[in-house]
Specification:
The complex is a heterodimer of chains A (about 250) and B (about 280). Chain A is α/β, with parallel strands linked by helices and about 250 residues long. Chain A contains eleven helices and ten strands. The termini of chain A are far apart. Chain B is mainly α. Chain B is built from eleven helices and no strands. In chain B, helix 4 crosses helix 6 and helix 10 runs antiparallel to helix 11. The chains are: A alpha/beta (about 250), B mainly alpha (about 280).
């Protein structure tokens, strides 16, 4: 993984025990674009996004076949450094999950994992990451305060800053605004628009307006399959598949 | 008809309310009468000589017991804390929660926690006093106590670790942390207050234990121990000794010291738990 950070998935199947959660997934995700995954609950979109940074490794009896390449390298090949993979692929979760430590320590967490100890260096990373996440102005005077004292929206932006501090190339977001109020949601959407200049962003969302607002391409998932994958404008104005059309127009899901 | 049923309900509720209130009063009365009785009997006999003086048969002191108790806490918690916390980390973080090993270990720790302490005492006596030939010694008593409190520490640490939300583990792994970094930088700090509280409560058990010590440290009340292999005594043993060897006043005074110490420890545990626990894990 050197310069290119596109994602290519070929014939990917994923099982939880006997249950097949993903069925023959094929998709190409371009770099420096926002790709949205939509679909009803339980359709496998969250499961799928977690395969990119191998978070499914943590789940017992989860089995995966097929090929997932990032920047041309198979991330499930033997000898893949999962730690490095996860450093390069940041993740933001549905519920804000800041660590119960100071704001500063939260953001400095990943840099410290990867051996950065010098205070001036850490200070610079923390400031840069918080600025990128649009949180610096709100917290610069209380960096040493516990992160649990922030509001939900601030906590989520802190989690984005924490992910950015690892200097990833890809940002995975699993319904990042579903637990937030509309104002915080708006801030995060603005942020995503700014970040896509530098990062490849994959976002799972239940909110179709959100998908149209922020994404370049959209994939519609149903029962573990990708039904339709197209430019967002195209998919929402002129869906080719009847099931996608039904979902988008609100007839089911 | 319905009105009567309703009336009966109200009567029933009132009846149970008074029953439970009565039960509460009885338990409060029982507890406070023990505490008040001990305090009334013991406080008049507490003096500097009893606590800090040298032991003579006319004027006994509990200095040897204070030193002995201190050593016993040091040895038992010093051994049981790292081993117990380490075991709990292994059980929660490194094993499949549904595995047979975990279930066996759980049943075993629960059983061990329920064994009467005199049985641990007998074990300590047979191992340290007889088989290893140490005779009565503080180290034998301390190690036996550490075995006794080990299951308690393992179980409570395990519960505290399991209470750390999975989202924090995920968050740490997603940032590229190793398992070890996740455990030491995220999970343990989150569980620290609960773990410290359980260690302090374990200290309380050590202080109030007597059955184990009668069989392992020898109840030598009249001189301070020279080192860890010396026989010795503890506060709880001194209460027993004074009570059965014609020093009822000193027994009562020692009981007060013991009571105050245990109360102080429990209050410390509660306060520490509250201080540490503030703001932590607020988002569940």
């Amino acid at each position: 993984m050197d310069n290119k950070f596109n994602i290519t998935v070929k014939n990917c199947d994923l099982y939880y025990g006997d249950f097949q959660a993903l069925k023959n997934i094929n998709i190409d995700i371009d770099e420096r674009e926002v790709t949205a995954f939509i679909g009803p609950s339980g359709c496998g979109k969250s499961t799928f996004i977690k395969t990119f940074n191998r978070m499914n490794d943590l789940i017992e009896d989860c089995r995966i076949t097929g090929e997932i390449k990032i920047g041309g390298e198979n991330i499930y090949a033997k000898g893949t450094d999962v730690t490095l993979l996860r450093k390069n692929i940041g993740m933001v979760f549905q519920k804000p999950n800041p660590f119960p430590m100071s704001i500063y320590d939260n953001v400095a967490f990943a840099p410290r994992t990867f051996g950065i100890k010098k205070k001036t260096e850490l200070d610079a990373i923390v400031e840069r990451s918080l600025k990128q996440a649009g949180l610096w102005g709100e917290v610069k005077d209380r960096l040493r305060k516990n992160a649990m004292g922030l509001s939900g929206g601030q906590q989520q932006r802190l989690c984005i800053a924490r992910a950015l501090a690892a200097e990833p190339k890809i940002l995975l977001m699993d319904e990042p605004t579903s637990a937030l109020d509309p104002i915080s949601t708006g801030k995060i959407e603005e942020l995503i628009n700014e970040l896509k200049v530098d990062y490849t962003i994959v976002i799972v969302t239940h909110n179709m307006q959100q998908a149209t607002r922020i994404s370049d391409k959209t994939a519609f998932f149903l029962l573990g399959e990708i039904i339709e994958y197209a430019k967002t404008g195209e998919l929402f104005s002129n869906p080719k598949d009847k099931r996608a059309e039904n979902y988008i127009t609100g007839r089911f899901g | 008809m319905r009105k009567n049923a309703h009336k009966r309900q109200i009567l029933k509720f009132a009846f149970f309310k008074y029953i439970s209130r009565g039960a509460l009063l009885i338990s409060l009365a029982a507890l406070s009468s023990v505490v008040i009785f001990i305090l009334l009997r013991g406080i008049p006999y507490i003096n500097m000589h009893l606590i800090f003086g040298d032991f003579t048969s006319k004027n006994p002191s509990i200095k040897p017991a204070l030193i002995g108790t201190f050593y016993l806490i040091l040895i038992s918690v010093g051994i049981a804390a790292p081993v117990g916390i380490g075991s709990a980390i292994f059980l929660t973080e490194y094993t499949n929660s549904k595995s047979r090993l975990i279930r066996i270990v759980r049943v075993a720790t629960e059983t061990l926690a329920g064994i009467p302490s005199i049985v641990y005492g007998l074990f300590g006596y047979l191992i340290f006093v007889v088989a290893l030939g140490l005779g009565y010694s503080l180290i034998g008593g301390g190690v036996t106590l550490s075995i006794m409190i080990l299951p308690v520490i393992v179980r409570s640490t395990e519960e505290n670790l399991l209470a750390v939300p999975a989202s924090l583990r995920e968050g740490s792994f997603a940032l590229g942390s190793s398992k070890v970094r996740t455990i030491f930088s995220v999970i343990l700090p989150c569980a620290a207050s609960g773990i410290v509280t359980s260690l302090i409560l374990a200290v309380g058990r050590v202080i109030s234990e007597s059955a184990v010590l009668i069989l392992t440290i020898g109840m030598v009340v009249d001189r301070a121990p020279d080192n860890l292999i010396s026989p010795g005594t503890s506060l709880a043993l001194d209460v027993y000794y004074f009570g059965s060897h014609g020093y009822p006043e000193q027994a009562a005074a020692t009981a007060v010291v013991l009571l105050v110490l245990v109360m102080a420890i429990n209050i410390t545990a509660t306060v520490l738990g509250k201080i540490f626990g503030k703001g932590e894990l607020a988002n569940g």
